[in-house]
Design the sequence.
């Protein structure tokens, strides 16, 4: 009797199976879309475009017989991957999402200038897209990105906790905010220890917001470094006093952006500074202990500036860019045009995206869905980026944050910390 | 025995050489070249000589990171060795539920570093962590790691010891089981106390295993990254930053590839210097055994 199993692997079977599998893989395009557009983005950029029946790109995909494949990363790794891909001789990624504090002249040289495309195949009502955001993506007079999302910072407060502490209205000045935050550092009726305010310590956004509330700044759009040191000192003194009073958590130095969201949702903090787009998440009944009770207002200025200088809140904008070394630039531009259209901009806004079109804020559907739309639109009118892009911007931010932490934790006198920011960041500034 | 000429042997050993060349030699040479250039995205690398090395070595943040790394490595590796040895001897002396306890001791090695850090962050949360609350309830001092840099360093060291103890333990336990039991029987007949048996029999015979464990752990521990990055991010105010975090920031936050490459080579050199004593001892042992 022949002693072989019917399942034994022979050379003929192995080769046959391999060839069969190769044939199946080779025939793949017959059931997949004819084209695939690879997109490098943050998860949030993909999420706001919807899926399945609510996919905002459904018609575009059918019309172009194209599939869109997203590869998503957190903000910094995303920028790193995007620049790495754009530095290769060729990339499979057709579109990337870039944040507005990264495009230096060197970085911009890796991406396709879009002015010609905009002229020959225009985006619907391009003038409707906030000019300030378009300006942020114009490097050496060349437009390299089409704005798609902005995240403008607002002041969030827990209305229920304010009521519990006997506070009838949110603050109208920075001094009131500090006073209320101190008063709200207590144990709530639910037995939860509440901290007046929670802020992440690894982002320049927060000290910059406080500095601007006193009329100062870190680096202006004209590259003036700490133009008003007294205002910066007042900002850091305020943060330090809040920390000393327990109105900022003891874990301030290790607090991250995600902690701000969870602390607010759990009622562990009464105030925070976050993008207005976080409104839905903070009030989500599945995650928050205070759904409908977390409200947002524009960050208040110091009492001395009320009615004189409007608050310049920090805004961060994202834009879609096309790497110069990608193959199908026509498909990439077609995708950008569709995502920038009025219809998709509104759809994304309803899904929680910060809309870049001025007209979107007037849409009744958005006004009904997002109670903070009007406040956000007002804040956006005077908002500007944390700092302008320049080659050593990331190092300048880290240096500033190191000094801010030392000052807030009480390890360095505020005056010395501000002087150190100026002294250490100056050599990093563009010539 | 038939001897082959080099020409005959070369095709047989070439794949290994090709592999080493492609995954170690060429990338290393590339990093050496990168370390003597100024390089970032969208800019052609330009030769700057040793400028990157000088810049990194004269940066106070790097020197602090190097000091923090040395402190963590020296403390964590030696404590880990002592605890690993103790646990290995305990297991070798016979324990109830040995298999279950073995799984418990080895478990941290199966846990992803990211998960482990998240778990420890939760347990030691300065406001609501179960361990912090328990210590407070007992009237004991807490680890105020998010505020006090020394406390943060202690927590990082504890976490790294917990994570890597199984590696040291398994090497020492295997070596201890390999010691013939008749040596202990002879020692007992000669009237040796348990401590004398440990000093005269166990420890000398565990010597090579201890050296291997120390050497590997020194080199691995010098690369410590995720424990620090995920727990403190190097803060407060860069006070707990280690060399690998410094390197990561240079490469991926500041996109300064030249100084990142220089940092990488300084890191290799520093870890070799730190472990050189043990390399020397290991070499001496190997040479001694060969004779």
Sequence:
């Amino acid at each position: 009797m022949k002693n072989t199993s019917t399942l034994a692997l022979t050379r003929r079977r192995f080769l046959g199976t391999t060839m069969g599998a190769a044939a199946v893989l080779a025939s793949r395009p017959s059931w997949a879309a004819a084209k695939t557009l690879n997109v490098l983005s943050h998860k949030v950029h993909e999420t706001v475009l919807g899926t399945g029946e609510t996919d905002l790109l459904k018609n575009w995909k059918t019309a172009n017989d194209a599939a869109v494949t997203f590869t998503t990363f957190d903000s910094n790794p995303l920028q790193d991957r995007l620049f790495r891909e754009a530095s290769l001789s060729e990339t499979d990624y057709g579109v990337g999402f870039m944040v507005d504090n990264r495009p230096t002249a060197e970085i911009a040289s890796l991406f396709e200038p879009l002015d010609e495309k905009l002229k020959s195949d225009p985006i619907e009502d391009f003038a409707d897209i906030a000019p300030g955001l378009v300006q942020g993506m114009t490097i050496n007079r060349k437009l390299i990105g089409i704005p798609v999302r902005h995240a403008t910072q607002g002041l969030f407060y827990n209305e229920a906790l304010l009521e519990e502490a006997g506070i009838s209205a949110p603050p109208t000045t920075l001094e009131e905010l500090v006073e209320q935050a101190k008063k709200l550092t207590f144990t709530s009726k639910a037995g939860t220890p509440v901290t007046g305010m929670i802020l992440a310590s690894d982002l320049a956004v927060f000290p910059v917001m406080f500095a601007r509330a006193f009329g100062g700044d870190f680096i202006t759009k004209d590259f003036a470094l700490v133009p008003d040191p007294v205002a910066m000192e007042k900002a850091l003194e305020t943060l330090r006093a809040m920390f000393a009073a327990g109105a900022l958590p003891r874990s301030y130095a290790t607090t991250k952006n995600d902690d701000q969201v969870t602390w607010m949702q759990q009622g562990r903090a009464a105030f925070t500074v976050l993008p207005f787009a976080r409104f839905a998440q903070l009030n989500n009944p599945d995650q928050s202990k205070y759904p409908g009770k977390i409200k947002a207002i524009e960050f208040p200025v110091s009492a001395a500036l009320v009615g004189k200088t409007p608050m310049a809140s920090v805004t961060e904008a994202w834009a879609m860019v096309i790497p110069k070394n990608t193959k199908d630039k026509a498909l990439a531009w077609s995708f950008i045009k569709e995502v920038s259209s009025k219809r998709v901009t509104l759809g994304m806004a309803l899904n929680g995206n910060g809309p870049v079109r001025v007209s979107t804020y007037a849409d009744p559907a958005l006004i009904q869905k997002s109670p903070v739309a009007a406040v956000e639109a007002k804040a956006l009118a005077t908002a500007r980026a944390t700092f302008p892009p320049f080659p050593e911007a990331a190092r300048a931010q880290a240096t500033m944050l190191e000094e801010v932490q030392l000052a807030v934790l009480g390890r360095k006198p505020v005056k010395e910390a501000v002087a150190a920011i100026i002294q250490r960041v100056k050599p990093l500034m563009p010539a | 025995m038939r001897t082959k000429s080099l020409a005959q042997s070369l095709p047989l050993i070439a794949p290994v050489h090709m592999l080493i060349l492609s995954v170690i030699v060429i990338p290393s040479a590339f990093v050496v070249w990168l370390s003597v250039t100024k390089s970032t995205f969208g800019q052609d690398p330009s030769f700057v000589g040793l400028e990157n090395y000088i810049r990194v070595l004269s940066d106070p943040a790097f020197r602090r990171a190097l000091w923090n790394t040395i402190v963590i490595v020296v403390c964590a590796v030696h404590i880990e060795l002592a605890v690993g040895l103790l646990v290995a001897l305990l297991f070798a002396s016979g324990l109830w539920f040995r298999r279950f306890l073995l799984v418990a001791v080895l478990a941290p090695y199966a846990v992803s570093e990211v998960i482990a850090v998240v778990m420890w962050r939760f347990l030691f949360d300065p406001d609501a962590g179960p361990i912090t609350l328990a210590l407070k309830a007992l009237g004991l001092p807490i680890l105020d790691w998010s505020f006090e840099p020394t406390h943060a360093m202690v927590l990082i060291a504890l976490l790294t010891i917990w994570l890597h103890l199984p590696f040291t333990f398994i090497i020492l336990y295997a070596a201890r089981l390999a010691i013939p039991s008749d040596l202990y029987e002879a020692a007992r007949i000669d009237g040796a106390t348990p401590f004398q048996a440990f000093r005269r029999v166990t420890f000398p015979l565990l010597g090579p295993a201890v050296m291997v464990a120390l050497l590997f752990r020194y080199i691995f521990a010098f690369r410590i990254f995720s424990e620090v990055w995920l727990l403190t991010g190097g803060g407060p105010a860069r006070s707990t930053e280690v060399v690998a975090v410094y390197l990561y920031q240079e490469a991926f936050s500041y996109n300064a590839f030249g100084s990142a490459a220089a940092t990488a080579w300084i890191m290799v050199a520093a870890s070799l210097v730190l472990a050189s004593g043990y390399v020397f001892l290991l070499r001496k042992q190997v040479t001694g055994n060969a004779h």
About this structure: The interface with chain B takes residues 76-77, 80, 83-84, 86-87, 104-110, 193, 201-202, 249-254, 268, 391-392, 394-395, 398, 402-403, 405-406, 409, 411 of chain A (CB under 8 Å).
